Amino acid sequence: MAGATALKFTVRRRPAVLVSPATQTPRELKRLSDIDDHDRLRFHISIIQFYGTRESMSGVDPAVVIRDAVAKALVDYYPWAGRLKELEGRKLAVDCSGEGVLFVEADTDPPFPCLEELISDVPGSSSILNSPLLIQVTRLACGGFILASRMNHMMADGQGLMQFLGAVAELVRGMPSPTVRPVWQRKLLEARDPPMPCFPHREFEEVPDAKGITMPRDKLVCHTFSFEPQEVDTLRSQLTPDLQKHTTRFDIVVGLPDSGTFTGP
């Protein structure tokens, strides 16, 4: 638009740091289930949340309190602080190493037209392996802040991420521990090793190339059937009195193949 003033938006980011669990956590290898590590789930999801200024938060640095709460939440949610590894057969597992999640602090002056500025693309953070979670807190000049997070979808779905962020929020408010504790039982959805199928799994069989149809073309027969009004009335007379009043001509004709009275040429 001619004469319009260019909208300036600047985000000043600090280098990414690692936030580790506040206390020591188990060092173990947790395998993802066969559902979680499916190829179609190998991507990241970003969530951006906006919070306005509050008088009760005057003088409080949101980045500091959120960073501390994340460290406390990771005591229970310690797989998020680990690293995804690829095992034999492209099987994925979480090495619960306690290295920590990526955390970025930033400052900006509203307004802002570019959402991509609100979550930093730390080198290596968008790959499938390695750190499964990235968090950025952007302080606004008005006193509010923006909480952005990007998670590996194989680690959790949207509800799982919100459960973790809910735990962080509870710890920010001063609760001693999260209300909901995580449970890791993904081995229940993992195939046995070695596989021991109990019945044929036809869903994994090769589907013949039928070019978009469900039966071979050489078995299809093309024929035209004409139904005159008197023929439809004859068919309608075979219905119960109640159905005769409410059944359409379309329903009568389409229902013929299922009625057991239809004979082709």
TrEMBL record:
Pfam families: Transferase. InterPro entries: CAT-like_dom_sf, Plant_acyltransferase. It comes from Eragrostis curvula (weeping love grass). It comes from the Eukaryota. Belongs to the plant acyltransferase family. Keywords: Transferase. GO terms for molecular function: acyltransferase activity, transferring groups other than amino-acyl groups. This is Uncharacterized protein.
